Amino acid sequence: MERRKFIITAAALSAGTATLGACATNNKEKKQLVHHVFFWLKNPSSIADRDKLVEGVKTLKGIETIRKLHVGVPASTEERDVVDTSWHVSELMFFDDEAGQEVYQDHPIHQLFIEKYSHLWSKVVVYDAAEV
Q: Where are the beta strands (DSSP E) in 13-130?
């Protein structure tokens, strides 16, 4: 009887360990791709142009591969040598992977955004970062 109890316990322990291992594999955090874009307006003093561009950037959240979208303007934080506040509008997007970002690039909503709003900006800088 004692040997049978040990075999059952060992089998249960083994099954539990296998289940935990499978959960750990399935629950691994995805390494996202971050797409950060900075826009400089042609008319930097125009609040109307800034607001129109912000409105346009927010339309991009309709693209299914964007996991999170943050639209911003320069914060009024402490001025420091390392802080660049020369830009006017930014978009920060999170994608599951590079494939999701590629879908975004060719997506009709993104293409329409460029067509409708590109007349507002004089410069765009993009930073894409892969999570490590």
A: 33-41, 66-72, 89-95, 121-130
